[in-house]
Amino acid sequence: MNVTLIKPNYLYEYIYLNIISPGDDNLVPSKSLRNLYFSYIHSIINYGLGLWGPMISANTFNRLKVLQKKAIRVIGKACYNANTAPIFKKLQILRISDMIDLEVAKVSFRYVYNELPLPIRGLFTLNAFNHGYNTRARNEPRIARHRTSVFHKSFLIRSQTVWSALQMSIKRTTKFTSFRNLFIKQRISSY
Description:
Blueprint: H1 3-20, H2 30-46, H3 49-52, H4 58-75, H5 85-91, H6 96-112, H7 118-121, H8 149-152, H9 155-165, H10 168-171, H11 176-189
């Protein structure tokens, strides 16, 4: 993903947030600013994040992280160098790294509950296909062997790695919206 394609739109929205939320004035409530964040900034970052997010370079990731933190400080009406962890928690907004993990975890969820299209489903295998033993992880996606760093960064490996690190209570949720909400709640509680 080329951050230069995102940055002009993102900066425009950031400037817009600054204009309607000048400093300590309560002209616009934080809840409205949060809604604007999800309408303009979050949607730009989140578009296709499941595919390009795991492959993002460290430099691009850091630039997006800084842009997201600037917007969060504006919404939280904090000073320019304030710690953002409490603001993310208060506003119930995921950091960009957790947004990537959520998107790839959704892929694994859809695989486990047979909601993926067949061509994409064929990219995954279950642990049950590897052996005949009745183990706890028998019906979980198997992390494929890989030799290249490019494949290691792919959404296939990242989705299976994130899925295997999830709490069992989140994995056992059968409804997609419940899974998403539990994932977000668990990640935000760690801030």
